[in-house]
């Protein structure tokens, strides 16, 4: 598929304070894209904006807040005159056995990753329809295969994958393209936060290769940006994820067998394990909602 020039386009990136969102903003800016940064960490967003090569601005907003995101969409349109690209990247994660999970943290993962993505699209689709633009929904390997100890995250990413595929069929005839970006474990604050728990780290390391590795952020984001340039329906942050599509029907049984074996292996170490929203992004979300710090094990 041929690529289109991004020079002069306007992109909105959610979850832009760090990780995938921050580097997406930098790499899009280097291609001449004007960038609107959206997230929960205003100081970090301001710093990211100041380092970009092109014109940019930032907005402090919770992607699950319909009114706030509608306001942001109107202000971005006023500030830049149009919106050509939206990268729905904002996300949080938690882990641990479902039976012992914090109900509020579990629900929040669904709210941010799934509902927040839909709220983002709802706010910016009118502008994308005007420009016949492109929406990239960031999903995950977790959309392709379930994993034990990650029920909320897997449910949310399976949800955004299905939602984005449905949306593609609705808006394609009006010129708007919708893509889904898949990432395996990538070196971000979220993944590093999950790895701080010994059980979660050891369990991940015992997953089948190549899903047991942490991959560098730069090459993964390069692939996502190339997907934006191609207005691609599917974008894979790691080369091997494309092959997972062909075998995804078999993966639940394989992972389920591995998961049962590992759950028996960890035994009593799982009792009472409760991992709250992980990483600095999760901490910012928790602070935004409750004024408290992130809960731990």
Automatic annotation (TrEMBL):
> Which residue range or ranges hold the Ketoreductase domain?
9-188
- Which residues are in coiled coils? none
Q: What SUPFAM superfamilies does the record point to?
A: NAD(P)-binding Rossmann-fold domains (SSF51735)
Spell out the PROSITE patterns in the cross-references. Answer: ADH_SHORT
Alphabetized UniProt keyword annotations: Oxidoreductase
Which Pfam families is this protein grouped with?
adh_short
Q: Which domain of life is it from?
A: Bacteria
What family is it from? Belongs to the short-chain dehydrogenases/reductases (SDR) family.
- Indicate what this protein is called per its UniProt record: SDR family oxidoreductase
Instruction: Give the originating organism.
Output: Streptomyces ardesiacus
